[in-house]
Design brief:
This protein is of the alpha/beta class. The protein is built from eleven helices and 15 strands.
């Protein structure tokens, strides 16, 4: 059943992302998350920006022209967010950013009023760099050879990594960091860090590892979903704890939960309510407040995608939970919080089976006859 305001208007949220084009796999995170929380009753309306800046601007203008959306959940990439946030700000539409990791490229301002129009639900790139440094130190590496794929995103991350990694505040030995134009000769003592987009990183991996198998390579966050087939075993990826899908679904659940409880909320008050729905605590521009360098990020083996039908990719999961009732959902949530990639499978609407039929009652049963 749709959630409505007192005037009977259905509560609607615009969801903007790459539903087609080269970054469709990221768009699947949005469509799957919307399906996962559809029982909340918020109407999620999808807009395709094809993952590009021009498309992001055009879709932002469409959303604003409609005038009926409570909020926008949008822009998995920082560049797209940077291009459109002022459009939403001018119209007074609150924005949730589930994965845009670069505050400086996401249009964030330092004044409190501007910050209250946008909520970034994850740690940023400074923490990502700290996580990379920490992971290399834990593996006993003293040298970082940094490459980028030529994209704006790649250059930005590579530059920030070379500037900040050598003076990091994590515990462990200091690192020697050097930016390379081409894949470096590597005797195994250095970690190669590839900064950039998923497709660009895939090209660099294909060229660079052909003659140097087994050397440790660290990829940045866009490669959590990697194009070009399965990666070599020596490749790890920097990703948000629990994976991007977990973060996106948490954003949908937090926004949907806030609007279900308070359908009339809008603007900064709505974003404040969304913060209260989250398990994590963030500062005003989205960095995780846990007191740990690299908090909210992890470096782990990358899970490849396998093409389905030639055009849509299907992710591999660590664990499949069968049944979307109370027990199945609780098990899936517990496993996901522990860092596993979990898919929840149900033959109907999640939550419509045993838990719903029983009226959400909890019964006690005695398996053995009582003793007197």
């Amino acid at each position: 059943m749709d959630v409505t305001r007192q005037d009977g208007e259905v509560v609607r949220v615009a969801v903007v992302g790459p539903l087609s084009g080269p970054n469709t796999e990221w768009g699947l995170l949005l469509t799957e998350a919307a399906a996962a929380v559809r029982q909340l009753g918020v109407r999620w309306e999808l807009f395709d920006d094809r993952g590009g800046t021009d498309g992001a601007v055009a879709r932002a203008e469409d959303v604003v022209a409609d005038g009926g959306f409570a909020a926008v959940l949008t822009h998995l990439q920082s560049d797209g967010a940077h291009a459109v946030l002022d459009v939403y700000r001018a119209a007074g539409v609150p924005v949730l950013l589930p994965l845009a990791t670069a505050p400086g490229r996401s249009g964030f301002r330092t004044d409190v009023e501007a910050d209250r129009t946008v909520l970034r639900l994850h740690p940023g790139d400074r923490s990502q760099i700290a996580a990379i440094v920490r992971a290399c130190q834990e593996r006993g590496k003293r040298r970082l050879a940094v490459l980028h794929d030529g994209s704006d995103r790649g250059r930005q991350l590579a530059g920030r990594l070379t500037e900040e990694a050598a003076t990091n505040d994590t515990t462990g030995p200091e690192l020697s960091v050097q930016l390379h134009e081409v894949w470096p000769d590597n005797d195994g003592t250095a970690t190669v860090v590839v900064c950039g987009t998923r497709s660009g990183a895939a090209r660099l991996l294909h060229r660079g590892l052909s003659g140097q198998p087994g050397h440790l390579v660290v990829l940045t966050d866009d490669c959590d979903i990697l194009a070009g087939g399965p990666p070599p075993s020596a490749v790890v990826v920097t990703r948000l704890v629990g994976g991007a899908a977990t973060r996106v679904t948490a954003a949908f659940a937090a926004l949907g939960g806030a609007l279900t409880k308070h359908p009339a909320l809008r603007g900064a008050a709505l974003l404040d309510m969304v913060r209260g729905e989250l398990a994590d605590v963030f500062d005003p521009v989205g960095d995780l407040l846990d007191g740990t360098a690299g908090g909210g990020w992890e470096v782990r083996p990358q899970r490849p995608l396998r093409a389905s039908g030639g055009s849509v990719a299907r992710r591999h999961h660590d664990i499949a939970v069968l049944g979307g009732g109370m027990v199945g959902r609780a098990a899936a949530a517990e496993l996901a919080e522990g860092g596993a990639s979990v898919v929840l499978l149900d033959d109907g609407t999640p939550g419509s089976s045993a838990s719903a039929v029983s009226g959400a009652l909890i019964r006690a049963f005695e398996l053995d006859a009582g003793e007197t």
